[in-house]
Specification:
With 411 residues, this protein is α/β, with parallel strands linked by helices. It has helices at residues 2-10, 15-23, 42-48, 55-63, 106-119, 136-147, 193-207, 220-225, 230-252, 266-273, 294-305, 338-353, 358-366, 385-391, 398-406, and strands at 69-73, 79-83, 90-93, 125-129, 156-161, 163-167, 185-189, 214-218, 258-263, 280-284, 309-313, 326-327, 330-331, 372-377. It has 15 helices and 14 strands.
Length: 411
Amino acid sequence: RDEFHAVCTKHGARPAEVCVQFSFLFDAIVSIALSSSKPSRVKGNIELANAKVPDALWTDLKAKGLIKVDIERAADGQMVAKLSKALPKVVFGTSSLGNLFVELDAATKQELVSEAVNGASGTPVFDSAGKYGAGLALESLGEALKALKVSPADVLISNKLGWKRAPLTTPEPTFEPGAWVNLKHDAVQDISYDGILECYEEGNALLGDYSSQIVSVHDPDEYLKAAKDEADLKKRKQDVLDAYRALIELRDAGKVQSVGVGAKDVTVIDFISDHVKLDWAMFACSITPYTHETSTISLLAKLKAQGVDVINSAVFNAGFLLGSDNFDYKKVARDTHPELFQWRDEFHAVCAKHGARPAEVCVQFSFLFDAIVSIALSSSKPSRVKGNIELANAKVPDALWTDLKAKGLIS
């Protein structure tokens, strides 16, 4: 209240005026009910409904985190409130909650979520999917948030849709064999109008007291790539667009906040953006110091012009740029891919010269592109979550970029 009153005073507005006019920022609200035990106040109450509040006041309230909605000027010139779609710099991945490569106990999963919630700047955003552990990640996330007593109003959950739970009838799940540890369920793909709605409802059920406000179709590029022939490809493209029709209906009905797309093959993001009004797009393995094709950069500009925010993921080329032998989720070796390892050696040398960690450079490279507003980072170790958050605010010397360019390491 003290901060709220201070902003009101700064802009010469009475708190009562601001409270009343805030109501009329929502076009569904047509009236306010006011009462008084003093006849002398009735006229003043009526005047509150016609008071003028400076636009800058709303901007200040938003900037200070005192209100959660964005205030925009509509086509008719009136100021209106819209649920904020701004994404934080770091989106927290949840694949580890689904037992990706290693089985974590419930206490560790809760600690991972706790570190993310406590370290977030503003509302924490978690990126999950029905495919992650055949729904285990969603279940674990909901259970951890509940145990931590996090209000559903104080968290945003992204659910990438397209996979539903199924009975496990084989020794291990039939999807992504070897990736998920000790699962009790299998998962099957269903990308269609009805299928995506079923995935949405199932995801919310798995989350328990929580629900997904950010939705997308999971890996549409892989679904299209599985086409047997041109006829099948045409059908699959229509399946994807039908799935998005369902998601847009959810958004228009106010059941979700935003609709996006995520893919490793950015040409599929390009295709979908031509047919769907997206709010955001997630790139993977596409914008890193090593990988940044001209066509991908052009797509970033196109999405920016469309008002689409971009989240960048797999910013380390699946760990390779930091020192692993996995490049874009495939094993590589010096004798079979000498050019990759030579590039990394030179990259690390430049980083060392300028006193910057390769992880910092990879993350900050993302933010050189104004279309990219967030990065998605995940960890299976709670102790690393804080460090991941700090990467988003690291400072990289300008001379480092100059050196990388001069050596031909970035284009």
